[in-house]
Design brief:
heterodimer; A: about 350 residues; alpha+beta; Phosphorylase Kinase, domain 1; Transferase(Phosphotransferase), domain 1; five-stranded antiparallel β-sheet; three-stranded antiparallel β-sheet; about 15% strand; elongated; B: about 260 residues
Chain lengths: ~350, ~260
């Protein structure tokens, strides 16, 4: 073989990139996506006759760092059995030495793409509640996601909402940070950080020198951006949830709707530069959204008397209309018979 | 070649060594340095020759002389000691060195012969010229420099894959798996037919079962991948650089 044509090189590239599934129960169908350390392939489980998604390292990893991280991700996913978290079926090493894990193939759309299509604000908020529920569940199991963003949320055709990509998740130690630190009280500095970060929503994930993804600007809490890895707790994820809420609100603003102040306040509270000022848990954040949807006052937004009346009027508008209609009809009848 | 077979072995597991020719080229040990330069030149001399042909519009003979002269200077003047992988890719660094070399080139006939004494790598210029003519690029000397970087990259990949295929053949012969290589050659490399043969057609042609075709091809591709990546690893200085280069080599882009 003296010379390789461009076509042969393309075939060799493809053959070199494709995972070698020989000796496994899986048959490769196609590559679905590529990320920082590996790719996700659609494959068929020949034993069970179903489609699965397989996450595989792209290249050999002689340092073992990436392989360890992928295995860790598989173990974390396996430990989090929840309808909002994709279940892991299998994990192992391929004949070519690459580490992989197989998971449920989720047919659906990423939240960022889903949001591009018309969707009502209440509909988006109900999706957001499901995300909060899933993250709250992970937190109760001592797992931080650390890279929550619309690109890592999948929405299914039957209302499924799944939180994906737990590749940089952190398992919380017993010694969690719950009291404000000097860094947290440095209000001004932190708010500057927030202004710097809260700009774009579509930047690629940051990587360490070893290629480890730490988070995504615009969705990453200031303390996470500073690299305070040891001091991160659930409130870093709550910041990211706030950024997702802001994204969902902004997406629906493209129409004619104006954003309710209570929702803006919820997002701001979740994204406060000071971790202690954020919601204490993802459940609390989800509950505030539920209160908003039910027309109840939210924790994040203290109302004045007029706002309370206005919200009350909106909440009971049907009853108010019926009573007013009754009073008007009754007044007309009285007027008619007296004439 | 024997080194390649030792590195990964038929198991196809990760190579045990992380020898970097780029690092070794700056070694104090002359033997180590010589070995490293041979590895680098084996991969880069053809792309450099073709680059000189197209970017500097040199004739076959001039490009041949310039390539030899440049490689000789690369070794004698230890250009690679200035290479900083944090600042540029090796290909870009070499391209810039070639450009400087051409700009300062003086045609002293006595110097032209020196390359032959220094280089240990066989330079098949006739073959390189045939390749150049066969896949003539539409680029002209006036094209932007980025186009030439892409051209150099493409020719580097072509040369790396060509060397990997050659090594794969030796590997298969050594391990009594020549049929595996022949299937790989027929299915993945052969451009004589308009469309690739099916596994069934190959099974009939080679007188084996279709499952054997699948398994043999999987083996050959696995070994090809291992050899190609090992060659690439030699051209990088760190694990992170290797992973970045490997993803580019295999056409795996983040999305």
């Amino acid at each position: 073989m003296n010379w390789l044509s461009d076509e042969a090189i393309a075939r060799l590239r493809s053959a070199g990139a494709e995972p070698d599934l020989a000796g496994t129960r899986y048959r490769l169908i196609e590559r679905i996506a590529s990320g920082g350390m590996g790719s996700v392939y659609l494959a068929e489980d020949a034993t069970l006759g179903r489609r699965v998604a397989i996450k595989i390292l792209d290249v050999p990893d002689s340092s073992g760092d990436l392989a360890a991280r992928l295995q860790r991700e598989a173990h974390i996913l396996a430990s989090l059995e929840h309808p909002g978290i994709v279940p892991v079926h299998d994990a192992g090493t391929l004949a070519d030495g690459r580490v992989f894990y197989a998971m449920k193939f989720v047919e659906g759309e990423r939240l960022d793409r889903f949001s591009e299509r018309a969707s009502t604000l209440p509909g988006r908020l109900r999706i957001f509640q499901r995300i909060c529920d899933t993250v709250a569940f992970a937190h109760t199991r001592g797992v931080l996601h650390r890279d929550l963003k619309p690109e890592n949320i999948m929405t299914g055709p039957f209302g499924e909402v799944l939180v994906m990509d737990w590749g940089v998740a952190k398992i919380l130690s017993a010694n969690r940070v719950s009291t404000p630190t000097p860094a947290e009280t440095a209000h001004d500095q932190a708010r500057d950080d927030q202004r710097t970060l809260a700009t774009t929503s579509s930047r690629p994930s940051l990587k360490t020198a070893h290629g480890a993804v730490l988070g995504t600007p615009g969705y990453m809490a200031p303390e996470q951006a500073r690299g305070d890895v040891e001091r991160l707790d659930e409130r870093a994820d709550i910041y990211s949830l706030g950024a997702i809420l802001q994204f969902l609100i902004a997406s629906s603003e493209r129409g004619t709707q104006t954003t309710p102040r209570a929702l803006v306040a919820i997002a701001r509270k979740a994204m406060d530069a000071v971790p202690a000022a954020r919601y204490a848990s993802a459940s609390e954040l989800g509950q505030d959204i539920a209160r908003y949807l039910d027309g109840l006052p939210v924790l994040a937004y203290p109302e004045n008397a007029w706002q309370k009346i206005a919200r009350w009027a909106v909440r009971y508008r049907l009853a108010i209309v019926l009573v007013l209609t009754y009073l008007v009809v009754r007044a007309l009848l009285i007027f008619w018979f007296r004439r | 070649m024997k080194e390649d077979t030792r590195i990964g072995g038929p198991s196809g597991k990760f190579p045990a060594t992380r020898w970097s020719a780029v690092v070794a080229a700056r070694s104090d040990d002359p033997r180590e340095r010589s070995r490293a330069l041979d590895a680098i030149l084996a991969l880069y001399w053809k792309p450099i020759y073709k680059y000189l042909r197209i970017r500097w519009n040199k004739s076959n003979e001039d490009a041949k002389d310039a390539t030899q002269e440049f490689l000789a200077q690369l070794i004698e003047k230890e250009y690679l000691s200035d290479f900083d992988p944090a600042k540029a890719r090796l290909r870009t660094f070499l391209r810039v060195c070639v450009d400087h070399f051409v700009a300062n080139q003086t045609k002293a006939a006595s110097r032209l012969k020196r390359g032959g004494d220094v280089l240990h790598v066989t330079l098949d210029f006739e073959g390189a010229e045939a390749e150049f003519m066969r896949a003539k690029s539409p680029l002209t000397a006036a094209a932007p420099v980025e186009s030439f970087d892409e051209y150099l990259e493409k020719e580097f990949v072509r040369n790396l894959f060509t060397l990997a295929v050659t090594d794969l053949r030796f590997f298969c012969e050594e391990h009594g798996k020549l049929r595996h290589f022949q299937l790989f050659e027929r299915y993945d490399l052969d451009d004589s037919d308009t469309s690739s043969p099916s596994y069934g057609e190959l099974a009939e042609e080679f007188g084996i079962a279709v499952t054997d075709v699948t398994n043999h091809l999987a083996f050959a591709r696995r070994e090809f991948r291992r050899i190609a990546l090992e060659k690439l690893r030699e051209m990088t200085c760190s694990e992170a650089e290797f992973r970045r280069e490997a993803r580019a080599l295999l056409g795996v882009e983040s999305a």
